[in-house]
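Q: What changes when adenosine-5'-triphosphate is included in the input?
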Amino acid sequence: MDSGWYTTMKPSFRDEWMALPHKEVQQIHEKIKLLEQDPTPDAKVKKQLKHLHPRLHRIRSGHYRIFYTFEKPHVSLLALRRRDDDTYDEEIDAEFLGGLVPELRLAQPGIPGWEAPYTNEPTAKRLPQPITEELLTRLQIPGEYFPRLVHLQTEDDLLDCPDVPSAVLDKLLEYMFPRPLQQVMQQPDLHVQHLDDLLRFKEGELISFLLKLSPEQEKYVNWGMKASGPTLLKGLPGTGKSTIALYRVRSIIAELRKQGRDDIRILFTTYTNALINSSLQLLEQLLGTDIRFVDVQTADRVAIKLLSHAGRTPHIMNDSEMNTLLQHAIQKTRFDGSEQQKQSQKQTIEQMSLDYLLQEINQVIVARQLHTLKDYLTAARPGRKLPLRGIQRRAVWSIFETLQQSLAQQGKITWRQARAMAEAYVAQGAYTQFYDAVIIDEAQDLDPSSLRLLVHLCKQSNRIFVTADANQSIYGSGFNWSDVHQDLKFQGRTAILHANYRSTREIGEAAQNYLAEGALDTDTEERLYVNNGPQPIMRRIQDQRQQLQLLVSFFRQARSAYRMSSGACAVLCPTIKSGRAIAEDFTRQGLDATFMTGQELDLKRSCIKVITLRSAKGLEFPIVALAGFLESTWHTTMPHTPSDEEREEYLSLERRTMFVGMTRAMRALLVVTPEDSTSPLMQGFDRQYWNVGEQS
Ligand SMILES: Nc1ncnc2c1ncn2[C@@H]1O[C@H](COP(=O)(O)OP(=O)(O)OP(=O)(O)O)[C@@H](O)[C@H]1O
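A: The predicted holo structure follows.
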């Protein structure tokens, strides 16, 4: 009989259920069924534990107690804990629940020594019981890890255990040290569609449960599917844009199946390789074998495939080759006009940095497919702060023409040219293998030509779904909503998400405050958060030794406070060089850390991941440090000596890059800056939002 109640559970409950001895399963399953019939207290087995938290309830089952909350129509299972003696409920105390702080809103999950990250290492906590093969089997941990795990004796051993995947270590940590209920309450809810799924999960027949979306998010999974054009979903970091994009894929497959289709083709695309890797992993989990219907690729990979279909194998010029070629083009170019005009054009180019000139050519001329000087003279240059008058644009155009000739002579093209060529090829109608649906995640970093290309590839415009956040545009300064609107004509099918599910309020607000003048989208939308925690930390350091000491101490303490293994930690660095140096420093200290490029990124690895700020886009980690600014010249020197406008544009792009890095953090964030830095990027840490402690 349908009681009108639906069960959800927290990941902690799921893991505790997994660890439950088989002989207890049936009885506890019966109790969960009882809750789904009616969770309200009955003064016998079901009881409200008001003295601990106004919403907390428990149901008894032998030596076990299931802790839960409910709010029509959902019953949320929080924890499954064993108490050996037959204790009365009044004796259930915060300690038994792992340290529940009664009033959730006031709760500040403390990190020991949080205020003094230089304090001595905490002493290693012994595991409350030995790790046995029987336990590992019950937790469904693959046998290959047994030899490594059965020798571990302390919490630290578990927190830092190389070569064992984080998911395995986290399962053991969860079992050994019950998570404080206050942390459990902040975890996402997972749908338990049928209560028998719990049994199937225990038997290994079911591998995962779906996230319970908010009603607002749920709406956007199917929103506008029958409309006449594409849909755009905007929102601040962590509001669930990518999650909805993934669920939308699932929903489209279900819809097409209903129509009797079994030859479905969906394209899921985004900008970076790292995000493609993680989206693929999530889609595999979400879709199971239906993943065969989905191509998960970067927009650039799509462009290259199309060009190869057109019989071209483009040789793409890399950044450093491009810089050299541009320098040659500047030397070679002869400007037109009177002597005075020639002089003025020469000066224009000399006053512009190489980077800025290249961006102008790439983002304005090539990406917008401007074919004539006339077009360029009247073109909009969104996001470009340095104004260029007619004569100045003539100068840029001449350099562009010389550059084109040099590229042609070498038989190479740029990425931007490749994208534009692919778009032109599809627009001509030569390609006919269209997709049933195209999902574009993180569109703010795509060139207009990439966007248009993806639009052309979709059979029906109402099956195009785009997510974007202008303030996370970090691969160019030219993002502009009007470009997107002009090409995609969303007309009313634009929605905005407001609730951040990733970061704590403290991290989210501190990052927003830091972003300030780097913002491209300054709409003051209401910002909501579902999690809270301690303020993020900013510390200034003098040298590499101090940086390392601080990072090691921060990760140790945060990992222990949040009971997470090294796999939950990431260091985000400005450059590949600084990232490699930090990973080497960690390794010398005996910590398992690896520098990974976007292509190499393996989120399942148990080590501390060291990656660049740019490839962290779209990803997330519970514990994050931004570091490596000492080793890098990135923050102190500007290319060339640019104008104020150019400098302003460059700094706002880099500020957004830092912002993207900060907003990857879910629970704990540390930013390490050089003490003597005069860079504006290392400023802007308002004490109202940041824990700016003094160095000891
Ligand atoms: N309804 C929800 N309940 C709990 N967690 C959620 C919910 N929606 C999203 N999340 C979680 O919040 C995190 C952020 O979601 P997601 O990556 O989709 O956000 P985003 O808007 O794409 O972020 P960004 O723009 O910063 O990349 C993910 O861990 C996701 O699982």
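Observations recorded in class: The chain has four domains: 6-97+186-202, 219-311+426-497, 319-412, 504-682.
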